[in-house]
Design goal:
Helix content: 25-40%
Strand content: 25-35%
Structural class: alpha+beta
Shape: elongated
Largest sheet: 5 strands, antiparallel
Length: 399
């Protein structure tokens, strides 16, 4: 499959040499969307993008942050999934025409678990506001918590006014860049992978509390293999938006990686979905997952006369899997520590390797793979003599 990808890419470059820089060849509806990106979940590398640093209204994609703060409040012990909540009038106000809602009524009792499911599956604005009251006391205080969390995570373009993403009475809107939404989504999925068990649901059945069945608003579920989340958003100002995540191995078994995509400001839900598909299929066809560093295989060795073997194998401290374009090859630079001395124990850091590919850099430690035994005095003298002889020979040849 990887060879097929490489051949396909080479043929494409031969026939259409401008394709790499031509947005319209990769995203057919490029002119009908304001910004987008797709990136590798594991290493946070952006594989393709347009205007991904520009802050824009994010509408209901704000609920990713609402989910995060609620889960952290559960972790703190303040509430639990089974905590019963009585719906207040402010939250019930959003169960009205013009708003995406689960159908909460004032005085209704509902668990935090159901509120989270309503938040992420049907994009309930009523659920978002009710969770804001549960976690923050009121929506203004909760918005402050959202902004503090964004600052803590280094999401500089994010600004929150409420938990749901609806436009405020003063005309203010929650905003973010596509890149910061990517970072937030990655953080949430890494910390709370169970969110994907919620977002891949196609329907909720809350008949037990009088709400009945509600279908998911997440597009492409069941249509795009591997897609299992994450959050849509739509307002007049934001346009049609979608933060998606895809297990790429469901499209190609060799692609053992997950992507996160963000589409913002599409002029219709059809365009939002077509751009999402274009980005996913582009990555599936022209990128591979490569095990660049294998912690179980020596990456390089260092000559050292004072150890028994005469050299030390250096191993990466951890694996490094990268999603790399089929026409790209990682470049490496090894740095070995100066004045390595015995004793050397397994796991001792003896250097590092710098990996660079497609503008992204990764720095990984190199360690000793085992305890190194000291060489005999005879071996050390013999190796030193050999080094001197080789030096003289090299000088003779050079001269």
């Amino acid at each position: 499959m990887r060879n097929f990808k490489l051949i396909s890419f080479a043929l494409l470059l031969f026939l259409f040499p401008s394709i790499v820089n031509a947005d319209s060849d990769i995203v057919a509806d490029d002119s009908r969307v304001k910004s987008y990106l797709i990136g590798d979940f594991d290493n946070e590398s952006i594989l393709y993008e347009k205007n991904s640093d520009e802050p824009r209204p994010i509408a209901s994609m704000s609920k990713i942050m609402t989910y995060l703060l609620t889960m952290e409040d559960i972790d703190s012990g303040n509430i639990s999934m089974e905590t019963k909540v009585k719906v207040n009038s402010k939250s019930a106000e959003l169960n009205a025409p013009g708003f995406s809602s689960l159908g909460l009524e004032e005085g209704m009792e509902i668990s935090v678990k159901k509120l989270l499911e309503g938040l992420m599956v049907v994009s309930g604005n009523d659920c978002a506001r009710q969770l804001a009251y549960v976690v923050g006391g009121n929506e203004k205080k909760f918005a402050n918590l959202m902004n503090k969390k964004a600052k803590d995570l280094g999401l500089k373009t994010q600004k929150y006014y409420n938990a749901s993403g609806i436009t405020t009475d003063d005309g203010d809107q929650n905003t973010s860049s596509a890149k910061d939404l990517f970072k937030l989504s990655r953080y949430v999925i890494k910390k709370y992978p169970e969110v994907l068990k919620i977002t891949k649901l196609t329907e909720l059945d809350f008949s037990d509390i009088g709400i009945g069945r509600r279908e998911t608003v997440i597009p492409l579920l069941g249509q795009l293999d591997g897609l299992d989340g994450l959050k849509t958003g739509t307002t007049d100002e934001a346009g049609y938006c979608f933060t998606s995540t895809v297990d790429m191995s469901k499209l190609d078994e060799d692609d053992e990686f997950r992507t996160i995509g963000v589409v913002m400001g599409a002029d219709s839900h059809e365009v939002r979905e077509s751009v999402t598909l274009d980005l996913v299929y582009y990555v599936s066809k022209y990128f591979n997952s490569q095990l660049v560093l294998d912690k179980n295989s020596p990456y390089t060795d260092v000559k050292m006369n004072s150890v028994k073997a005469g050299y030390i194998n250096l191993y990466p401290k951890k694996n490094l899997n990268l999603v790399v374009g089929v026409d790209k090859r990682p470049v490496s630079k090894v740095n070995v520590a100066n004045n390595i001395k015995l004793p050397i124990k397994k796991g001792d850091v003896l250097g590092n390797v710098e990996i660079t590919v497609d503008g992204n850099s990764y720095d990984e430690k190199l360690i000793a793979g085992k305890d190194e035994k000291e060489a005999s005095q005879f071996s050390r003298v013999l190796r030193a003599f050999s080094d001197v002889c080789n030096l003289i020979l090299d000088c003779f040849i050079a001269g």
